[in-house]
Amino acid sequence: MEMCKPQQNHLLAALSMEVKERLFSHMEWVELPLGKVLYESGDTMRHVYFPTDSIISLLYVMESGASAEISVVGNEGLVGIALFMGGESTPSRAVVQSGGHAYRLPGQRLKDEFNRHGELLMLMLRYTQALITQMSQTAVCNRHHSIDQQLCRWLLLSLDRLPSNKLTMTQELIANMLGVRREGVTEAAGKLQRLGVIEYSRGRITVLDRHKLEELSCECYAVVKRETDRLLPYTPSTMPDERSIAPKFRR
Amino acid sequence: MEMCKPQQNHLLAALSMEVKERLFSHMEWVELPLGKVLYESGDTMRHVYFPTDSIISLLYVMESGASAEISVVGNEGLVGIALFMGGESTPSRAVVQSGGHAYRLPGQRLKDEFNRHGELLMLMLRYTQALITQMSQTAVCNRHHSIDQQLCRWLLLSLDRLPSNKLTMTQELIANMLGVRREGVTEAAGKLQRLGVIEYSRGRITVLDRHKLEELSCECYAVVKRETDRLLPYTPSTMPDERSIAPKFRR
DNA sequence: ACCGTTCTGTTCTATAGCGTACATAGCGGA
DNA sequence: TCCGCTATGTACGCTATAGAACAGAACGGT
Fold first, then answer.
1. What is residue A106's predicted lDDT score, i.e. its pLDDT?
2. CATH code assigned at B200
3. What whole-number distance in Å separates Cα of residue B53 and Cα of residue A245?
């Protein structure tokens, strides 16, 4: 048996003997044929996969059926971060892009390695997953949606983070954020203004019809919003039974 | 200390009294004027920011100077995940997009909350950060680069995860991954073939000139590669011990 | 050796967004 | 009050990519 396998998984290889032995006693060696779906959008993940000579694509599949790759995972990584990030699932699909093999570990076994970590950590991880969702959706949106749709998404994301329905933001600035021309924003904003959805002048934008804005936006806003709400429900910490909630974060 | 009631930070609000009190004894209340840069690409972060009534944009600034927003952070989150993810910095810039305030915590204080967590966790987190980098860069690439460039990037990312210089992948499949038309891939691949960079037929692609491929690719590949190498150097620690694997799962 | 299927190549038109140039309009300081 | 600056509006040609339709080419089972 060769000592230095050419296609071992790098993450597993980097672990100490102690941890590795504990994990490997529960590890399965599985074949991953091309096209196999490891998990669908929203699926509760049961295993994490450590690819060795296979490649897995994380895709976001849109309502239209069109898809875009969010990221790609090979022997440098693992599939199923949501299991330890705390979200248990993601809005993306994992498909085998290049057939091969992987080590597979029941999610529970991975979580067992985490069972001493406190609430702060769990909270951070869950937030991180929400952030990742946003990033992914941004990539998708950049690929597939019009400036008009993206402006709506962007306004809604901003609106959710502000106390009023006004934001101070020149079209030039928005263009930089979206990575488009200022003129493109001018046109899109003009349309929204003509529709009575927003009102603006010299860097002061007032949202008049939020509902319409949501209608005009692409699905990307809703996806991020829904996932963020799911991951971070923000139970008020002033509640007296706060500490009794904490154990639910531990598995 | 003033406890900003209407616009408290949601993450802080969700913490238990115990943890919150420990954190708040080291917390600063800072003003964030519009346009202030919280950190530049590659900067070692000293603080994490919990915005209350401000919005911070995470931007990736390209070599050309053009920029694209990776994500946006408001009172639902925090700026500086790299501090607890283990990377200490990111390739992105954080700019105040909407002036306001935030709670600021020295990074070390946050890390103190993490100091009992084992090596597995740290490894996972570092990987996650690398993945996040890839996602971010995908968003950037989708916005700004041609199909030709994106194909090069994609081939390189795949190549790095495979043992040989051959990959089995139809143009149709690649098109799905990149979120573009199959015809677009056909054209881009044709150009590469004519340049002698690759050779392919019916789903079998051989990379002949990797160096050229890197030249033709946009910067996005290099950014992700460099960051991944930095976060996960895979130091030649203990090699895997075959005997620790359950016999039936050995290769 | 054949035939159907699956890949790849080509060509047409349509359009969104870019680059560029320049015009207008509102605010704010002197 | 005026000037200058910044923000917004508009217009024109250009290009990359989408959408669609179809032709050729190679593989693989029977």
1. 94
2. 1.10.10.10
3. 28
Q: Is residue A103 part of a domain?
A: yes
In tens, the pLDDT along A105-158 reads 999 888 887 765 556 677 778 788 888 888 888 988 898 899 999 999 999 988
User: Do A63 and A180 have their domain in common?
Assistant: no
Task: State which residue of chain B sits closest to A28, comparing Cα positions.
Answer: B249
Q: Does any domain span residue A226?
A: no
Give the per-residue pLDDT at A245. 30
Q: Based on the domain organization, do B193 and B122 belong to the same domain?
A: no
**Domain check: are B46 and B16 in the same one?**
yes
Nucleic strand D within 7 A of Cβ B183: yes
CB proximity A165 to B under 8 Å: no
CATH number at residue B250: 2.60.120.10
Single pTM value for the model: 0.80
Phi, psi of B85 (to 5 degrees): -75, -20
Chain A residue numbers touching B120 (CB-CB < 8 A): 15, 19, 113-114
State whether B139 and A138 contact (CB < 8 Å): yes
Q: Is B37 on the interface with A (CB under 8 A)?
A: no
pLDDT digits (tens, 9 = 90+) for A194-209: 999 999 888 889 999 9
A158 within 8 A of A225, measured Cβ to Cβ:
no
C-alpha span between A38 and A30 (Å, rounded):
12
Residue A47 binned pLDDT confidence (cut-offs 50, 70, 90): very high
- Do residues B174 and B151 lie in contact, with contact meaning Cβ atoms separated by under 8 Å? yes
* Structural domains in chain A (count): 2
CA dist A174 and A184 (Å) reads 10
- Residue A213 lies in domain: 146-217
